[in-house]
C-alpha cells in the first residue's frame, strides 16, 4: 500500500493504542560517571511547585529530596529561593491560616502549622489572632451545620464532638452550645 498502512492499520504505534519506543541512553550505561538528567532541573521543579501554591521550607525540601541525592545543593537552592522571594514560610503560614480559619479552630490550624515546620514564634502570633475570633468562627460553623440549640444530652454531645473535631476550644464550644442549660 502506498498510504503508509501496513496489513494491520497505520504504522504509527500510537494509532493502534501502543506506545512509541523509548530511546535508550547508551552513554550513561557505558560511562557511569556521566550523570543522566531526567526531567526538569531542581530549581525548575521548585518554581513549578511554588507557582501552584505556597510551601513551607521543610515541606518543599521533602518534596524536592526525592529528585536529588545532593542535600547541600538542595539547601543552597532553598536559600536562593528564599533570598529571591520565591519561598517564604511566613507567607505560607498566613496563607494556610486564611484558607482554614473559616472552617477550623485554632488548635487544628496550629497543629497543621507545626506539621509543616513553621517557626514557633510565628505560630504564637498567629495563634493569638485566631483565638481572638474563635467564638465568631465557631458560631458560624455551628450555625451552618445545626442552627438550633441541642434539645437533649445526646444532641449536645453530637454537636460538641462536631466542633471539637474541627479544633475549637472547649470553652468556646460551651459558649456556642449554651452550657447554661438545665437538663
UniProtKB/TrEMBL annotation:
Keywords: Cytoplasm. Modulates RecA activity. It is found in: Cytoplasm. One of its GO terms (cellular component) is cytoplasm. This is Regulatory protein RecX. Residues 90-123 form the RecX second three-helical domain. GO terms for biological process: regulation of DNA repair. Residues 1-39 are annotated as: Disordered. The gene is recX. NCBIfam families: PRK00117.2-5 (NF001055). Pfam families: RecX_HTH2, RecX_HTH3. Residues 134-177 form the RecX third three-helical domain. Belongs to the RecX family. It comes from the Bacteria.
